[in-house]
Amino acid sequence: MGGVPEEFQVDYKPSFPADYSPGIGIIGCGGIVKNAHLPAYKKYGLRVVGVYDVLPQATEGVIETFGVERVYNSLEDLLADPAIEVVDIATHPAERFELINKALDAGKHVLSQKPLALTLSEAKQLVSKAEHKRLKLAVNQNGRWAPPWRVATLLVQKGVIGDVLSVTHLYDINYSWVTGTNFDRIKHFAIYDYSIHWVDITRCWMEGKVPNLVRAREYRTPVQPQDSLTAWGMWIDFEYPDGYSAFIRGIGCSQTSQEGHYFWIHGQEGTIRGSVLGSDYVELEKDGSYHKYELEGQWFPDGFAGSMAELLSSVREDREPYNSASHNLLSLQMVLAACKSAESSGKPVRLEEVEN
Predict the structure, then answer these.
(1) What's the confidence (pLDDT) of residue 278?
(2) Are 183 and 193 contacting, i.e. CB atoms less than 8 angstroms apart?
(3) Order of strands, sheet of 137-139, starting from the edge strand that comes earlier in the sequence
(4) What is the mean pLDDT of residues 41-53?
(5) Which of 86, 264, 270, 281 is the most exposed place for a label (fewest CB within 10 A)?
(6) In the chain, domain spans
(7) d(CA 263, CA 169)
(8) Which fold has domain 23-142?
(9) How far apart are CA 240 and CA 201, in angstroms?
(10) In sequence order, what DSSP letters do the residues of 177-236 get, joined into one string?
(11) What number is the average pLDDT over the span 153-157?
(12) Which CATH class is domain 147-297+324-354?
């Protein structure tokens, strides 16, 4: 890793089991699958047995472009194929609960798109069902394997900066691309759908800590077009016991050619700072020295490969995946609490208020 001392080096790239390469089936074949899932699986040599989408035109070209073996005529055909051991569900949130249930009933391990469910109660039902059937259920929190975030996570886990005291995120971006898309119609899009990655990685860096209060606001920015439906501006404040804290702010209307999602992790013994999704970098400041990491890969598509790699490794090793649905429950609860707070213009919400 360039000039980074050996004691601070980490192996951040996706790692697949050498002797386990199961057949994968994908449900949903929209833009994110064709721009991230399939490129990632092709890059790392995974076997995609087939795909299915309710809109036949969505699957056009996937065989020729990505080496997918077949396109299924129905969901039932995909789930009944014994060549498929793992199902990647990449639909919008409203359909996922039923689809995950069906995949588990068919005896498949599941990688579910995020957020896992519309409610915490539904998410817990899915966790319980997967455990009962002795199947792996993971959430595609692919941001955990975005190179800068993955380096940061491994440094935190190694204790390099000591106890994490505070996490801060800033999105220097513009949401103009959302207008007119399906995302524009998602309630609390910027908090619930987009920011789930930032809430989730915060949950990872603050491992072992649970916020007692969540405050959030969402608001239309001055330059939003009238025909845009969802709020572009937002912030989320997580208050932890004993003064620990985390804060996420999304500008939403930034006018810049250097977009980025900047982050700071302040620990008792050092600081990690960086950016993802534009201006990617990560550096460690410790004992008066700075160490900048030379990164290979990007969130798209390598983060998606990392998420699947962890699920496959957990199946092969018969253990809980790091991105398990169970581990993701707190992330979902935190983001649902933020949505609830935003509905009352920032009123503090306790996690237990979103149990259902």
Answers:
(1) 87
(2) yes
(3) 70-71, 48-52, 23-27, 84-89, 109-112, 137-139
(4) 98
(5) 264
(6) 23-142, 147-297+324-354
(7) 4
(8) Rossmann fold (3.40.50)
(9) 16
(10) GGTTSGGGGSTTIIIIIITHHHHHHHHHHTTT---SEEEEEEE--TT--TT--S--EEEE
(11) 98
(12) alpha beta
**How does pLDDT run across 159-200, given as a tens digit for each residue?**
999 999 999 999 999 999 999 998 999 999 999 999 999 999
Residue pair 117/123 in contact (Cβ under 8 Å)? The answer is yes
Q: What is the phi/psi pair of residue 23, to 5°? A: -75, 140
Burial of 323 (0-12, 13-18, 19+ CB in 10 A): buried
The answer to whether 8 touches 269, Cβ cutoff 8 Å, is: no
* C-alpha–C-alpha distance, residues 2 and 328, integer Å: 33
C-alpha distances in angstroms, 117 versus 93, 98, 335? 6, 10, 11
Cα distance between residue 113 and residue 34, in whole Å: 14
**What mean pLDDT is predicted for residues 93-122?**
96
Nearest Cα to Cα of residue 148 among 267, 1, 273: 273
Rounded CA separation 274/149 (Å): 8
> Residue 21 corresponds to which tokens in the numbers above?
């390469």
Per-residue pLDDT tens over the stretch 326-341: 999 999 999 999 999 9
Q: Express as a percent the part of the chain with pLDDT over 90.
A: 96
First and final C-alpha spacing in the chain = 45
| Identical fold, 23-142 and 147-297+324-354 | no
Q: Distances from the Cα of 356 to the Cαs of 112, 116, 130, 235, 337, in angstroms?
A: 20, 14, 19, 23, 11
Cα–Cα distance measured from residue 275 to residue 254, given in angstroms and rounded to the nearest whole number = 16
Gap between the Cα atoms of 356 and 336, Å rounded: 10
Residue 4 contacts residue 293 (beta carbons within 8 Å): yes
| Dihedral angle sign, alpha carbons of residues 40, 45, 51, 55 | positive
How sure is the predictor about 1, in pLDDT bands with cuts at 50, 70 and 90? low
In this prediction, residue 122 has a pLDDT band, given cuts at 50, 70 and 90, of: very high
Q: What's the CA gap between 70 and 60, in Å, rounded?
A: 11
Indicate the burial class of 246 (C-beta count within 10 angstroms; 0-12, 13-18, 19 or more). buried
